Amino acid sequence: FGFAFVALAAGTLISWIGGLHRLPYLYWGVWIFPLLLLAMLKDGRRQGAPLTLGKVKTVVWNKTFLWFLFIVLVLSVTHRMNDSFLGLYLKDAGATDDMVGWAWAISAFSEIPAFIVMGRYVHRFHELAVLGFAALFYALRWFLIGMIDDPWLLLAVQAMHSVTFGMFWITSVHYLARIIDPELRAT
């Protein structure tokens, strides 16, 4: 919810500050406070057994885990490319700064129901099959974005984020929690 509301506010704020070319100033303004808070953090106590190279090797050389990482890499690269260029693509299609904020908000709001549904039902399916399904939806989403040049239709396509990212994220976390030993999960 927080990200969606910030996305909506950001579109309006970008319009108010004078456009995307002033976005670095907004970023610095937003990041100064967390950086100051970061300087006040202290290390917590170490809990559990120390991490050993042998434990890491058992995970890293697991073929299933390596295939999983490959799938995640492919999906993540396409997803991050969309994140990086969505605003520019929308602007090139004639969208306003407010519409760019709405595109991000639609994505964020649409993933909430997907997180709820997938969190309840992902255990009923094989995770790699669900990731394959998410990959197919990603391909359909990128195809539609590539074919559409109307900013309003592009906003509608952003709702597919629920199926693509929501399904991808919950399934990935569930899969890792199942195949990785508890002492290695945070690593």
Please explain how this structure is put together.
The chain has helices at residues 2-17, 23-39, 53-60, 63-92, 97-121, 127-147, 151-157, 161-179. It has 187 residues and is mostly helical. α4 (63-92) runs antiparallel to α8, α5 (97-121) runs parallel beside α7 (151-157) and α6 packs antiparallel against α8 (161-179).
Q: Helix tally?
A: 8
Number of strands: 0
Using the CA coordinates, give the radius of gyration. Answer: 20 Å
* Largest sheet geometry: none
Mean pLDDT: 85
Q: Provide the structure class.
A: mainly alpha
- Estimate the strand proportion: under 5%
Globally, the shape reads globular
Residue windows where pLDDT falls under 50 for at least 5 positions: none
Give the ordered list of helices and strands: HHHHHHHH
N-to-C span: 28 Å
Helix coverage percent: over 70%
What is the structure about, briefly put?
This protein has 8 helices and no strands. With 187 residues, it is mostly helical. Helix 4 (63-92) runs antiparallel to helix 8 and helix 6 (127-147) packs antiparallel against helix 8.
